[in-house]
Amino acid sequence: MYVTGVLSLKGGVGKTTVTLGLAGAAAKQGLRTLVVDLDPQGNATTALEPAESETTIADALEHPSPAVLATSIAPSNWDDSIDVLVGSEDIERHNHPDPGSQRLGRLSRLLAALPRGTEPDEPTTRTRSSAPGANLPHYELVLIDCPPSLGQLTRSALVAVDRAVLVTEPTIFAVSGVQRAFEAVQAERAHNPRLQPLGVLINRYRARSAEHEFRINELRELFGPLVLSGVLPDRTAVQQAQGAGVPIQRWDTPGAREISQQFDNLLGRIVRAGHSARERRGSSRRTG
C-alpha cells in the first residue's frame, strides 16, 4: 500500500480535481484505491458518491480503531475498485491549529489498521465479519485529499503519507500557496522521514496567457526539477465530467482525453515512487 497526499495551502486551485483524476486513472488500471476525504468541504465524497456509511472520517479520527474505520469506508459509485473514507464537515473539529504529536499521529494510526498485502483482494462485500476491519480489501493506493489550510488535518496527512503532490495554478497567490505547502512538507519530515514531495503540479494552464507563462517560469526558478512537466490544461471537460458524476477518463472529448493522459502519467510516477521505496526498504532489511 502506498499513501499519497494531494495538497495546496491555497483554496480553489483544483487539488480535489487532481485527487479525483488520480482515482479515475487508478481505476482504469485496476488498482484497488482508497480515497481519504480530509477536507471539511467534502467535495471528493460528493463527487465519488459513496454508499451510505454508518460513520465518517470525523468519527474515525475521534476513535481511531479498526472497527470505526471499517464503518467509515464505503464503496464509490464510480468504480468497484474505488472506496471512500467518507468525509464530513464535522472533521473541522479535528483541525486544531497547534496539535500535539498524539493528535498528529491519529491518521497514520488509523491507516495502519488497513489490511496489508502485496496483492489486492477480490472484490469484497460489505457484510461485517467478526474481526473489525477484516472485510476491507488490501488497498494498493491511498489518496488523501487535504484541506487548504495548515492545521492538524493537513499536518496529520503529511505524517501519514509517503509522497505529497503539491497542486498550484500559474497565478501569483497560488504560487505563494505552493511555496508554503512545500515548506510544510519539509517541516513535517521531522515527524515522517519517509515523506518526500512528489512534485509541483500546475493546473488550469492556458497556453496563450503571458501571465501563466511568467508564473510557470517563476515556479521553475523556485522548485527546479520538482515542477512536473505534465501541466494540466484549462479545459471545460473537467467541470462537465464532474457535473455528470463520472471520472474524467469516461468523458469522451478531446480535452478530457488530454487531461486523462496527464493523470495516467502522474499515477505512473506515483507507482514508480512506491516501487522504489519498497525496494529500498527491502534492501535495508537484507543488509541490516
Write the layout of secondary structure elements.
Layout lengths: L1 E6 L7 H14 L4 E5 L5 H6 L8 H6 L3 H7 E3 L6 E4 L15 H4 L1 H7 L28 E5 L6 H9 L2 E6 L3 H17 L7 E7 L7 H14 L13 H8 L9 H34 L1
Parallel strand pairs: 1-5, 1-6, 2-4, 2-5, 6-7
Antiparallel strand pairs: 3-4
Helix pairs in contact: 1-11, 6-7
Write a short abstract of this structure.
Residues 6-247 form the CobQ/CobB/MinD/ParA nucleotide binding domain. The protein has 288 residues and is an alpha/beta fold.
Q: Can you walk through the features of this model?
A:
By secondary structure, this protein is an alpha/beta fold. The chain has eleven helices and seven strands. Helix 1 (15-28) crosses helix 11.
What percentage of the residues does DSSP assign to strands (E)?
A: 5-15%
Largest sheet strand order: 3-4-2-5-1-6-7
Shape: globular
Unreliable stretches (pLDDT < 50, length at least 5) are 118-134
One letter per element, helices H and strands E, the order comes to EHEHHHEEHHEHEHEHHH
The structural class is alpha/beta
Question: What's the average pLDDT?
Answer: 89
Query: Could you give the count of β-strands?
Result: 7
Span of the ends, CA to CA: 23 Å
Helix content: 40-55%
Number of helices: 11
Report the radius of gyration as a whole number of Å: 18 Å
- Biggest β-sheet description: 7 strands, mixed
Key structural traits:
CobQ/CobB/MinD/ParA_Nub-bd_dom, P-loop_NTPase, alpha/beta, 288 residues, 7 strands, DNA_Partitioning_ATPase, ParA family protein
